[in-house]
Amino acid sequence: MRYVSLEYLKVSEKLAEKIKSAPEWVREYLKDVPEEIVDFTYGEDVEVEIPEADTFPKLLLKLAEERPGDTALREKEYGIWQRITWRDYLDNVKKFSLGLLAMGFQPGDKLILIGDNRPEWAYTYLGTEAALGIPLGIYQDNLPEQLLPLIRNARARWIYCEDQEQTDKILKILDQIPEVEKIIVEDWTGMWRYKKNPEWGHKLVSFREVQKLGEELMEKQPGLFERNVESQNRRDLACFVTSSGTTGTPKLVMLSYENMLFMGLAMQKVVPMSKDDEYFSFLPFAWIGEQMMTFSCGLTVGYKVNFYEEPETVWRDLREIGPTIMFSPPRIWRDMVAHVQVKIADTGWLRRKIFETAMKIGYKKVDLEFEGKPVPFWLKLAHTIAYWLVFRPVLDKIGLKRIRHAFTGGAQVSIDDFRFLRAMGVNIKQIYGQSEIAGISCLHRDGDVNPWTAGKPLPKTIYAVTVRGEVIGRSPAVMVGYYDRPSDKDLVNGWLYSGDHGMVGENGHLVIIDRMSSMITLEDGTKVAPQYIENMLKFSPYIREAWVLGDGKPYLCAILNIHPENVGKWAEDHNVPYTGYVDLSQKPEVLELLRGIVREVNKRLSENMRIRKFISLYKEFHADDDEMTRTRKLRRGFLKKKYKALIDALYSDADKVDFLGEVRYEDGTVDVVRVTMRIIDVEEEGESSG
Fold first, then answer.
1. Is 677 inside a domain boundary?
2. 673 domain residue, yes or no
3. Residue range 400-441, pLDDT digits in tens
């Protein structure tokens, strides 16, 4: 293995000079870089001090002491926002933590959490840590067979389930995980007979029962909770989180309190936050981004975290809260943009023209900002007027009226979506990171936003690009390692191999092109980043998902998922009858709609990067079918095997393909359907939709 150091530099003279002029901490990191690099970038040279309260439970104790009556959490129940103070927050965590100990919880035990975003999820997470255990959140929409390897790999003895639905999943696989001692259930609706089961009824316990046991232990051993909390420090493990899982079963990432706290505090060095901020928690808690905002930032800043009433009321509740800080993956911003686009297209001629005129002003302003050029006073004034008269009322409808900081991460956001939102006055910024680096490691700074980049590294964080084009990073937020498998290939000398292909752009911005494994090389040697083209396609409100393929082929093709709600509305407006998704996706009129969208995207691409053919898939890509990760990233390797017949047909002279495929319904049942899908040549003249 080759090392690059200041004493032995097999790099360009320009890079050598850049290293010599870098701060001392950067040079120290670069001495241990595992292989030859072509460039690097780093964050601000400012100290990020971990506080004396150096764990999440310690921070909770501190906040409950300093601000006992202030609102910490809010949850909507029965249509009313219920207030939970810092004192209440601590009290619930303490009771649950001691309840675990009363049931035999041991230091180092792992507890699995499965459920929607609720205060009880936070109580369980922090209570497990305070009991000297390790929490692991798992996505609540996982199927039982997807839960099984994660529970086994974590060697978990304890499981928290939100309700009957999640409990039933565990009971289906319980005979395969005999090491599980207790299943803690928060909502017992519909489960009154479960405890009577002679085989597993003794393993079920309600959340309130656990807290009651905690109250009893509190009386017997006062101060036990506080002693446990004080016995921990920043180097102890805070949690396990799952990796993205694009290539198989997600890995279990071990993160320490130092990892989590450093990331949150470093972020605050460049993104000012205060206790008066409002955060809306609606993305799965299993995602590192949600834990990062709720705990890494929430407990160090002390802002309010708000929980929705039901998954079906998320958008209504979001509007009622009007958060000041929001963090979401691109698919959420895509849905918001598509919602605005469809509503504007459906409104009257005058309102539509007013909005389009305002958007021209917004685009002109943000394009100048992206280019680093000054914005004329008259344009700033025009945008301010457009914001208050046009954009603000629209933003109010989607809950973004009060937003100060909006972040997008988890995947590359569509440039068009990004530009659209910023033109409307939303201060959205791209971030980059991974579970393995505790969430965020790069982000845009106010006044230095470039839609093509992921921004600059956080303070005391460095990224380098190897000669192979892979992005590797180092900071105090880099994981301890993987729990369930070796990490020596992913973590070398403290450097994290991201698996992403990228480069360092202007002003030290990191540019992420695509996953190393996703890059396409056409027959003529042209390198293509499919995600870039996929995002251009998904900017249309009528395309929900796109898969661009062509590795080793003479041209690019695509397999598209229509957006059922938006295309359904379009079909109604154009008098196109249909019976369901399968029928709608294959309608000649819909195929012509998609052909027009692909043609428009092709106009913005060079000749050898244009899509030649596409298929409108009879179903949506879905995580339950292992086609996507729970964060909606395509599992391309799996897709290539599953849809090999479609790929072969796309690269043949056929104009249609018969396919025998599965459809999974909401109740979990699976049906087999035979579908004939047309292969659309983009440049051919299409059929009339009239």
1. yes
2. yes
3. 999 999 999 877 788 889 999 999 999 999 999 999 999 999
Q: What is the pLDDT of residue 562?
A: 96
Torsion angle in degrees (nearest 10) through CA of 400, 405, 411, 413: 60
- What confidence tier does 4 reach under pLDDT thresholds 50, 70, 90? very low
CATH code assigned at 153:
3.40.50.12780
pLDDT digits (tens, 9 = 90+) for 341-353: 989 988 899 999 9
Cα angle 570, 562, 638; round to 5: 175
Cβ-based neighbours of 312, under 8 Å, separated by 6 or more: none
Q: Among 291, 307, 323, give the residue marking a domain's end.
A: 307
Phi, psi dihedral angles at 396 (to 5 degrees): -60, -35
- pLDDT tens for 480-536 read 999 988 888 899 999 999 999 999 988 899 999 888 888 899 999 888 989 889 988
E strands present in 164-207: 182-185, 204-206
**Structure confidence at residue 6 (pLDDT):** 37
Residue 544 CB neighbour total at 10 angstroms: 22
Task: Report CA Rg, the chain.
Answer: 26
CATH of the domain at 610: 3.30.300.30
Residue 96 Ramachandran class (φ > 0 left, ψ -120 to 50 alpha, else beta): alpha
- What does the alpha-carbon distance between residue 488 and residue 7 come to, in Å, rounded to a whole number? 26
**φ, ψ for residue 145, nearest 5 deg:** -70, -20
DSSP annotation string for 593-657: HHHHHHHHHHTTS-GGGSEEEEEE-SS---GGGTSB-TT--B-HHHHHHHTHHHHHHHTSS-SEE
Q: Which residue has the tokens 């309260």?
A: 53
In angstroms, how far is CA 315 from the centroid of its own chain?
Answer: 18
**Domain count for the chain:** 2
Q: How large is the average pLDDT for residues 13-42?
A: 91
Q: Are 154 and 483 in contact (CB under 8 A)?
A: yes
Distance between CA atoms of residues 602 and 537, nearest Å: 10
Query: Cα 330 to the chain's mean position, in Å?
Result: 8
Supply the mean pLDDT for the chain.
Answer: 92
pLDDT of residue 5: 38
Residues in the chain: 690
What is the extent of the structural domain holding 191? Answer: 56-232+279-307
pLDDT score recorded for residue 625: 86
8 A C-beta contact, residue 207 and residue 184: yes
Cα 298 to chain center, whole Å?
18
Residue entry with tokens 């395969």: 176
CA distance 162 to 171: 14
How many other CB atoms are there within 10 angstroms of residue 144's CB atom? Answer: 15
Question: Is residue 540 a part of any domain in this protein?
Answer: yes
Cα separation of 371 and 366, whole Å?
A: 9
Q: Which one of 287, 307, 327 terminates a domain? A: 307
Whether 560 and 615 have beta carbons less than 8 Å apart is answered as yes
Residue 665 lies in a domain: yes
Residue 432 CB neighbours (<10 A): 27
pLDDT one-digit tens code per residue, 611-625: 999 999 999 998 888
Classify residue 349 as exposed, middle or buried by CB count within 10 Å of its CB (0-12, 13-18, 19+).
exposed
